[in-house]
Predict the structure.
Amino acid sequence: MINKRENTFFIETFGCQMNVNDSEKVAGLLQAEGYASVGEPARADVVFINTCAVREGAAEKLYHSLGRLRQLKTQNPQLVIGVGGCVAQLQGQRVLKRAPHVDVLVGTHNFSRVPELIRQARVGQIPSVDLDRGADAFTVPSGAIAHTSTVRAYVTAMEGCNHVCSFCVVPKTRGPEVNRPSEQIMAEVRSLVARGFSEVMLLGQTVNAYQDGDVDFAELLARVDGVGGLRRIRFTTSHPGHITPRLADALRDLPRVCPYLHLPVQSGSDRVLTHMRRGYTRQRYLDTVRLLRDRVPGLAFSSDIIVGYPGESERDFEQTLDLVEAVGFDGVFVFGYSARPGTSAFRVPDDVPEAEKRRRVTLLNDRQQETQARRNREWVGSRVEVLVDTIREGGSVSGRTPHFRIVHLEGSAALLGQFVEVQVTGAGANSLSGRPCGRLSSAPTHANNSLTASSGNPIL
Ligand code: SAH
Ligand code: F3S
């Protein structure tokens, strides 16, 4: 008989929404096998670390965690330690060399095998490894996913990436693009709505490049938008090279698609963009943003930026500052360049000193904070629709507007998952605050629910 202590697990997740979603799949599969989730590794019989390889710091977090777990394993030799995801895929057996106390190693395409690999490890087959890239990425049944939030559910639309950005390890860790069949996505969305979710976020490394037969991303959005009971649709991440007029129309016309676009630019310098192999120029990015804003009034933008890319001069960096100013993003994630083995940029000297990278990160962030504070102040006095997604300490709650702005408000746990109309009374750089002035229950309506048959080709 299995005693209770043998049935607990703890998952630590590093990285992006895709990794969070993968961990939700692993958690769901383990729960289906009778495991219960616990809040700390010391109480768990299985600890699983889902890893991120995108920057060196993220990858090193794995080894910090494994260092801490070594102690636990000494106290409890039965503890099963699993490592999965991007670092596992990239470093393979090298993880085991550096951390021999790892029992299970699973790649980005093999998460559905985690329960089986744990079973093997528990009967002494150590290490238990599956890094096969040929496996089907979508074998985890929709119903088995243990969603972290009860409000917003992640839904995989596509896996992998066909781009060749010089700095990026993702095509190596997650492989080429694989589009999930649209019927599978639709079935998952319908079942999520039936389970009470109001919002879905469609995920993919270049989600707007989605194509399944005749179904492009705009068509996928239109279909998801037609699912009765669903209130909000978000998606991430979009690549500037795959923005089409059809997508712009979808953002404008589909009532449930939120007016927010995460559109990484990476740099404002043409010289750097060419080296990065991003496939667009500074001007083309700016034109894309302008065209989207013309078609979709009020559309919010956020972006990712890398500073200190090899050879990035002060002038290149100024071009980035200038582009960020020109666009007026609602949020920017700034990263200091991190040389990643296996990428093409790894072969050129990482010649911007770390202190200079840090200076550029800080400067860009400071400028961006000023922009955000200014843009957020414009909302004070208006009324916004907030979907409450977080209960905060001290009895307040927070949620997001359709434009993905965070709003703090007074309220109790009973508001979780509710749509609340909020009068905005204050604004900081990173959030708004306000007071509820009504609870909205009906779905937002929109004048035009149909997509025009305009071009599916890139916008420019
Ligand atoms: N298309 C992906 C990108 C994954 S990586 C997505 O879905 O978001 C996320 C961000 O990390 C990138 O947009 C880039 O800004 C940053 N990044 C990627 N590789 C990097 C590196 N080697 N050094 C610093 N930042 C990096
Ligand atoms: Fe990475 Fe570029 Fe793809 S940033 S995920 S290679 S679009």
Observations:
- Confidence is low (pLDDT under 50) at residues 442-454.
- The two ends are 64 Å apart (CA to CA).
- The first strand starts at residue 8 and ends at 13.
- Residues 354-377 form the longest helix (24 residues).
